[in-house]
Design a protein that fits this description.
Layout: H1 14-31, E1 33-37, H2 38-55, H3 60-70, H4 73-86, E2 95-102, E3 109-115, H5 130-146
Antiparallel strand pairs: 1-3, 2-3
Length: 147
């Protein structure tokens, strides 16, 4: 019988699993959509739902609780400022897991975990803009030409 077995161990130690999910939570909050294996996505879904539920009540103890779990100030700020307002009227189910085929190398089942009503611009947070690079290159070319 499977009584009392509440989570997947994912063939990792406790510390490794805790760090893995902390990093995945931070990435999911930052980009609002990540691609991972299906078992990891299924384990991450209740955790992100709990994080957003904690963030809906804006009190100091909840901020401290989230910071101890996420250990990232930007993620905690985003949960309290953006996500809590976005999901204010929703009582649960802030994320979804979509199957995404199988990985080429080892045929592992892949999944996309994303926040419901996500911001499509969130995926482009770290990508540099190409227009700015060209303007910067033009300015350096002008400096070199003037010397």
């Amino acid at each position: 019988m499977r009584h009392g077995i509440g989570y997947r161990k994912l063939n990792k130690t406790g510390e490794h699993r805790k760090a893995l999910f902390k990093n995945m939570l931070n990435s999911l909050i930052k980009y609002e959509q990540i691609i991972t294996t299906l078992p990891k996505a299924k384990e991450l879904k209740p955790q992100i739902d709990k994080v957003i539920t904690i963030g809906k009540k804006n009190i100091l103890s909840n901020k401290k609780k989230l910071f101890s779990k996420l250990q990232n100030k930007q993620s905690v700020t985003k949960v309290f400022d953006e996500l809590s307002k976005r999901y204010n009227s929703r009582k649960g189910g802030y994320s979804r897991v979509l199957r995404a085929g199988f990985r080429t190398g080892d045929d592992a089942p892949m999944a996309v975990i994303e926040l419901v009503d996500r911001n499509p611009e969130a995926k482009k947070v770290d990508k540099p803009k190409k227009v700015e690079k060209k303007e910067n290159e033009d300015k350096t070319d002008q400096k070199v030409a003037s010397k």
